[in-house]
Recover the amino acids of this structure.
């Protein structure tokens, strides 16, 4: 072989060697474990599960999710419906989760990953337990991995902890497992709003037709003016995207001094609500105020009978009212203060201040 050909071959060899060095290979951490499912039997059972218990430090229950009549509820909140999208995502992630790295089996190091036994009073992980009849293992969800995707977990009866290939969303409060959506009535649908206070004070605002842009405030005292069209129109936002902060059986609360809020939509739906405040806190704690509402849906018969609402919409409206009542019937909801304030306004809140009489 000529020196020229040998030099060319050597150059090609060096280029190939350099290229090989640039190709990332598996690290010892990634290559020492074959990716396997975290809970192999879960995929076959995920659609048949009917119980998931979630607990935290000291073994204290966070939420017990139970399935009945085709839907999931949270036992700690009197069986109120769970957020199915959230629960479905968690179960799907658990069923598909793969182990990508084996971690410590030394209990002394569990706290670094958040996978220590949750019976400890200062445990940071969350225990997930399935129905014992399923045969599925309980697991402790620890910390999120830093610098890479994934979550540290440990099967309760295993000594070895592992890193899985995805992060898990596991709420730490019972309320965060709930379906927080109460009702949504867009302000664009509303044609009439009425507020009635226990002392007899009353507000009525209505549109002459659904095509009107602004509500007309009724019974304005002589010589007074509304603050703005926006102030009056905002009354229609009361039940728009209304979400809960707490939930309880409606019969557990006293509604005798409730403020009443009602609205009518262009398709003849009527929503009647009652609103109250409840003082909370113990003797050794500062008092706090909670804001509660209960709701009922029906048809606004006057509108249907007068023909303001098209006759062919009555069946659809009836079905809409039934669907709302099936969701909210028998329940009271803790709501944000700003929503409560918006549904309990008084006439003076919507009017310009009266001019002071001359001295």
């Amino acid at each position: 072989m000529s020196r020229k050909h040998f030099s060319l071959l050597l150059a090609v060899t060096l280029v190939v060697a350099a290229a090989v060095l640039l190709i990332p290979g598996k690290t010892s951490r990634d290559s020492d474990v074959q990716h396997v499912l975290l809970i192999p039997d879960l995929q076959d059972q995920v659609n048949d599960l009917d119980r998931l218990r979630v607990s935290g430090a000291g073994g204290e229950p966070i939420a017990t999710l139970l399935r009945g009549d085709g839907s999931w509820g949270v036992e700690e909140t009197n069986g109120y419906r769970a957020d199915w999208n959230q629960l479905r995502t968690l179960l799907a992630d658990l069923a598909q989760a793969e182990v990508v790295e084996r971690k410590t089996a030394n209990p002394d190091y569990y706290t670094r990953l958040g996978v220590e036994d949750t019976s400890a009073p200062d445990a940071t992980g969350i225990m997930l337990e399935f129905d014992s009849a399923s045969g599925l293992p309980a697991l402790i969800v620890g910390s999120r991995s830093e610098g890479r995707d994934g979550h540290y977990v440990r099967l309760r009866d295993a000594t070895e902890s592992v890193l899985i290939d995805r992060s898990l969303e596991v709420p730490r409060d019972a309320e965060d497992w709930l379906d927080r959506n109460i009702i949504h009535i867009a302000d664009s649908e509303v044609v009439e709003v009425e507020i009635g206070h226990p002392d007899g004070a009353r507000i009525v605002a209505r549109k002459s037709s659904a095509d009107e842009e602004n509500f007309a405030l009724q019974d304005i005292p002589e010589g007074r003016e509304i603050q703005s069209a926006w102030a009056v129109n905002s009354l229609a936002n009361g039940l728009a995207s209304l979400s809960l902060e707490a939930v309880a059986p409606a019969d557990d609360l006293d509604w005798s001094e409730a403020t009443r809020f009602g609205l009518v939509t262009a398709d003849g739906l009527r929503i009647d609500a009652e609103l109250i405040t409840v003082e909370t806190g113990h003797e050794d704690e500062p008092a706090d105020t909670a804001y509660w509402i209960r709701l009922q849906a029906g048809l606004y018969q006057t509108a249907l009978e007068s023909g303001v609402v098209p006759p062919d919409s009555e069946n659809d409206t009836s079905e809409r009212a039934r669907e709302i009542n099936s969701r909210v019937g028998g329940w009271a909801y803790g709501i944000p203060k700003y929503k409560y304030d918006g549904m309990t306004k008084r006439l003076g809140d919507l009017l310009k201040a009266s001019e002071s009489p001359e001295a």
Observations:
- Confidence is low (pLDDT under 50) at residues 1-31.
